[in-house]
């Protein structure tokens, strides 16, 4: 339940070396005045190799798009509770997103950010995958954190698995032991490429 603060909460319980940190996630809404883009209804969600992504914003907002950049190992993205000032004025969009958008779609040269928001992901620095299960030494401490941005996709299964762990003492429906804290202690990442 601690989300991006799971590392901090773990330390308060005497558990060190939890590789989960708050990692900033920024999302921008921009407008593209170019008619060729405005009139094209079939713009898919696009992922650039740089990690920048964009998609069309709804069907009523003609020429509006949502974009962002995948959260990765860049330590500049780590943040604190004081870092939640949303807005495009911090230079991130211009420095990390705009060039890639304009390269991918030349009409995006003249875009204007019209809205933005940001928050934190619970980023697992070991392998960007969740830590799920009991701590091997502090058995009353159960992890379900470190999803690095894709936790919403796993929530139903993880909720069931953790409930089974609490009630039955073990995973039953789905064996999630590969996501246990032991891999952190052993320095053995559970890698999965291209996870957005």
From TrEMBL:
One of its GO terms (biological process) is mitochondrial respiratory chain complex I assembly. It comes from the Eukaryota. Transmembrane segments: none annotated. GO terms for molecular function: oxidoreductase activity. Residues 1-165 form the FAD dependent oxidoreductase domain. Keywords: Oxidoreductase. One of its GO terms (cellular component) is mitochondrion. The keyword Oxidoreductase applies. SUPFAM superfamilies: FAD/NAD(P)-binding domain. Required for the assembly of the mitochondrial membrane respiratory chain NADH dehydrogenase (Complex I). Involved in mid-late stages of complex I assembly. This is FAD-dependent oxidoreductase domain-containing protein 1. It comes from Lotharella oceanica.
């Amino acid at each position: 339940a601690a989300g991006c603060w799971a590392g901090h909460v773990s330390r308060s319980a005497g558990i060190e070396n939890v590789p989960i940190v708050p990692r900033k996630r920024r999302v921008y809404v921009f407008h593209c005045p170019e008619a060729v883009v405005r009139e094209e209804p079939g713009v898919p969600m696009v992922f650039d190799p740089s990690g920048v992504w964009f998609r069309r914003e709804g069907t009523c907002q003609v020429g509006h798009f949502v974009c962002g950049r995948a959260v990765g190992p860049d330590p500049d993205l780590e943040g604190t509770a004081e870092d939640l000032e949303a807005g495009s004025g911090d230079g991130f969009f211009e420095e990390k997103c705009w060039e890639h958008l304009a390269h991918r779609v030349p009409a995006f040269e003249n875009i204007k950010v019209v809205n933005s928001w940001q928050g934190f992901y619970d980023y697992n620095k070991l392998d960007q995958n969740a830590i799920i299960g009991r701590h091997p030494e502090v058995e009353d401490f159960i992890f379900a954190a470190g999803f690095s941005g894709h936790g919403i996709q796993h929530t139903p299964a993880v909720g069931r698995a953790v409930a089974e762990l609490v009630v039955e003492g073990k995973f039953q429906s789905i064996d999630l032991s590969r996501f246990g804290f032991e891999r952190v202690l052993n320095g053995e990442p559970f890698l999965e490429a291209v996870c957005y």
